[in-house]
Amino acid sequence: ALQELAGPALKPSAQNPAMSDGRIIQEICGRLDRGETDRDQFFEQLTRTVADMIGCTRRGVWVFVDTAEGRALRCMAMYDRRLDRIVGAADIYNADSGPYFETLVREGCVVASDARHHPAMAGFLDNYLLPLDLHSLLDVCFSINGVPFGSFSCEQAGAPLNWTQRQVQMLRQIGSRASLALLIGTVGLRVQAWAD
Question: I need a surface site. Which of 3, 94, 179, 193 has the fewest CB within 10 A?
């Protein structure tokens, strides 16, 4: 799947897979910049590619928005490997998920290898984790101009997955590389960077 999205010039190399992954992300972002893909195609390519890179069941891109109900994270795209397609996801509201938001913004990530018992995930158990058979969650905040703008979400279904520091770092690097394209991809939405 990575090779399909990347094209023949950007095939991953065994000698330097991290650089190849970075080049693939740059190519996906460049396609949006050049107008070769639209917003939906960009988010689908990005989520599919990162799901392959991280090795998780589900992968999403979320941005902070202001809604009538307050601050929320809105899903721009959620790729589900089990269905091999983009699926919908409801907004996550700060008022309903305070511990999650606090951890995500304060620490820059929520690393929940056992999401069903992680304190920040308590509000997600009955309505999200159990119905979707999700056991592990890794969310990493990305910033624009130093202000949290959204998060990358990796979710594992079926059985727990112990997230590694390498996976966390990879998501942070992707956020750095893709932040401008993510900003472009959210034009027209009521996006609001997280400011205290």
Answer: 3
